[in-house]
Amino acid sequence: MAGIMVLCVRNKSNDAKLNCLRFASIFGICGFIGLPMIQSLISGQECVGEATIYCAVMISVFNILTW
After folding, report:
1. In angstroms, rounded to a whole number, what is the distance separating the alpha carbons of residues 67 and 53?
2. Is residue 44 exposed (0-12), middle (13-18) or buried (19+ Cβ within 10 Å)?
């Protein structure tokens, strides 16, 4: 996503709206894609529930810190 944003938004100015757009586009999808990706990567093992909980806690802390 970072590469796509570099290609789409090549403005060199330090505009606050563009910086916010870049940040939201790059880091905003971690919860939407992160949890299903973790569940699919660890699908055959016993620790699927634990990995999902750890991932959800990490995403919650990340969201609080970025807010």
Report:
1. 21
2. exposed
Pair of tokens at residue 40? 């699919």
pLDDT surpasses 80 at 62: yes
Q: What is the CA radius of gyration of the chain?
A: 15
17 vs 34: CA distance, rounded Å: 26
Kindly list the distances between the CA atom of residue 67 and the CA atoms of 38, 39, 48, 50, 56, in Å, as whole numbers in the listed order: 24, 26, 28, 26, 16
Question: pLDDT tens digits for 13-57?
Answer: 677 887 777 777 777 777 777 778 777 787 766 677 777 888 888
Residues 3-27 as b/e (b if ≥16 CB within 10 A, e otherwise) read: eebeeeeeeeeeeeeeeeebeeeee
